[in-house]
C-alpha cells in the first residue's frame, strides 16, 4: 500500500463569521459496503447496532479495521473538520499535525494579510490540510508540510495583490448556502458545484490527483504564480518500483558529490526541455543539452562555461526531481555487478520494456553478464561492429537508468605483514556493506587488464587537499638508524610512518627505488579503505597505469577490496 499518496485535501478558513470548511477533495469517501447498507436501511425505526459491537462480532482483520478507521476519519462532518483545522492566530505560520485513528492531518495555518487599499477582508486565516496515512514516514510528512506552506505563501501573495483568496472564499460560501436551501431529499454536493465555479478548487483538485499519480505538481495559481513540488519518495520509483528512496538519502548523496562524478539523465532530454517553464534558467538548459554519461562534472563545468558550484546545484536539482542520477563516467575499467534490488523474474515489466527499446535483445541475458563483478572491457567483444558496440553501451546506460546495475570500486588498505589484520573488524569500522565479491584478496590477485584505457582521458585535473590533511606525525624509533645507513633520503620519506609500517615497507623490493617509494608515500594517506582508485587519481593527478603499477609493486603490504561508492550506494539501500 502506497503511504506517500494523500488520502484527502481540505481548505478551511477562519474569520469574523466563524470557522468554515470551504472545500474538500475527494468529497465522496463512502465505500461500497457502507453505501449499500445505507440504501438497504429504509425503515426509520430500524435498530441501530453499536459499531464496536459489530467490529467485535464480525472478527475482521487488523488491516480491514485500519482501512475502516481511515474511512471513518475521512467521513468526519464538515463542522468537526473546521473546528480541528481552524487554529488560533497564535498557532499560525507553524507546522500543523494532528493524528486521528489511522489518519494524520498535515498543514500550515497562515494568517491573511489585510490590505489598506481595499475593503478589509472578513477572513483572518486559512489552512490547506493534507490527510495522510498514520504510518507515513517522517520525511513524507515534512514534504507535505513544506508543500502546504508553499501554496499558502503563493495565496498570501495573491491576496495582497488582488484579493484572490477573499473572492474565491466568498464564491465557495455562496455555493454552500445555495445548496443548503435545496430540499432535504436532494443529493447535490456543494463541492461538486464549487469545482465547476471556483478556480482555486480546481487547482487543489489537480494538486491531489498529481500527487496520487506521479508525485510531481506544477501549479500556476491564478494564472500568475507558479508553484512546483516533487515528492522524492514517489518520483524515484518511476523507473524501478522496487526502490524506495528517502529524501535524506538524496541529501547525503549530494553532500558527498565530487567533481570526478558524472550525471546520467533518467528521462529523455528533449521531453525534459519541453516541460521546462519559459523562464527556466539558461544554465540548466545548457547543462541538460550538453550532458553525457562519459563526462565528469568537472568536464561539464568547462564545457558549459559554468562554475563547479553552479553545476553542483543544478545537478542536485535534477537528481532530487528524479530527472538524473549520479554515476562515475563510463569507461572500460568500470566494474559493475547486478543490483541487489534488480528484478530477475521472467515476467518483470522491465523485460518487455527492454525488448521494446532494443529489438531482439533479452534483458535477462544482459543481466546475467553481471552476475559477478565484470568490467566493461570484459563485456565488450572486439569482433563487434561499431554499431553493435554502440548498442552495448546504450544497453548498459539503460540498465543504469533503471538501477539494475551497481558499480564497484577498488579500495586499498595498508596492512603491514607483521601485523595480520582483522579484516572483519576493519570492514565494520568503515561501515560499508561488502559486495558479492566479498573475499578480500591481495593486489597481486587483481587483473591489470580490468584497469586498462578508458573512453575518456585518464588525466586528472585536481589538486591534493587530502594529502596534507591526512598526513600525521609519529615519533622516530631506533630503526631509523638502519634506514639512514641504507639511504638517508628514504628515512626522511618514511619519517611520518609508524615503526611497524616503516619496517614492512622497507622489506618490499620496490622500496629500493626512490621514485616508487616517493609515489607510494605520497599515496599512503589514501590507503585506509575510504578512497577508491578513481578518487585517488583525481586528487593526486596520477594516471591509472601509474597507480596500478605502484599497487602491484607494494602488494606485499596492501590488501584490496571492491564495493560500491558510498555516495551512490544510497540509491540502492533504501528499497522495500
For this entry, give a set of tags.
single chain, 576 residues, alpha+beta, six-stranded antiparallel sheet, 27 helices
Give the class from helix and strand content and strand pairing: alpha+beta
Strand content: 15-25%
Q: First CA to last CA: what distance?
A: 12 Å
Query: How many beta strands in the DSSP annotation?
Result: 16
What proportion of the residues is helical, as a percent range?
Answer: 40-55%
Which consecutive residue ranges, at least 5 long each, have pLDDT under 50?
30-41, 49-57, 420-486
Mean of residue pLDDT? 79
What is the secondary structure topology, with strand pairs?
Elements: E1 8-15, E2 18-25, H1 32-40, H2 51-58, H3 62-74, H4 78-85, E3 96-100, E4 103-107, E5 110-111, E6 123-133, H5 138-162, H6 164-180, H7 190-197, H8 199-213, E7 216-221, E8 225-230, H9 232-235, H10 247-255, E9 262-265, H11 269-275, H12 282-290, H13 297-304, H14 308-320, E10 324-327, E11 335-338, H15 349-357, H16 363-368, E12 374-375, H17 376-379, H18 386-401, E13 405-414, H19 423-429, E14 441-442, H20 465-470, H21 479-486, H22 488-493, H23 499-506, H24 514-523, E15 528-532, H25 533-540, H26 544-553, E16 558-564, H27 566-573
Antiparallel strand pairs: 1-2, 1-6, 3-4, 4-6, 5-6, 7-8, 9-10, 11-12, 11-13, 13-15, 13-16, 14-16
Helix pairs in contact: 6-7, 7-8, 10-14, 10-27, 13-14
Please describe what this structure looks like.
With 576 residues, this protein is of the alpha+beta class. It contains 27 helices and 16 strands. Helix content is 45%, strand content 15%. Strands 1, 2, 3, 4, 5 and 6 form a 6-stranded antiparallel sheet that branches. Helix 10 runs antiparallel to helix 14 and helix 13 crosses helix 14. The chain is elongated. The termini are close together. About 15% of the residues have low confidence.
